[in-house]
Amino acid sequence: MKMHAGFTLSLIVAAGLGLTACGSLKEDRRPKFNGVPFKATVKAIDKRATLADFRVEVGDATRSQLGALQAADHEAKRYCIENFGTSRFDWTNITVDAEGAYSLQLDRGDGIFTGTCKP
To answer: What would the mean pLDDT of 19-31 be, rounded to a whole number?
Structure first.
């Protein structure tokens, strides 16, 4: 009887470890930008006026500003392709200086990007 209970306990522990490993594999599959996975959402600013103007929010952009910009760029292209059939767009709130440095708008550490799709 004791041997059977030990075997059952071993199976439960092994199954738990297997499920834990599956959870970590899911994280590894998320796209990474500059080596960091980001959660990004995109939506029209005012869809009654136009779908061309959009806003992308990238969670915890302070982990990598370059990665956050790359994640926003990915979402913006996807949005413009879905709504206008082209990946062309312009950012409307990102400024770049003569040396190529840019500044991002942050809200509680999240990156806020706005742009306009170009038909």
So the answer is: 58
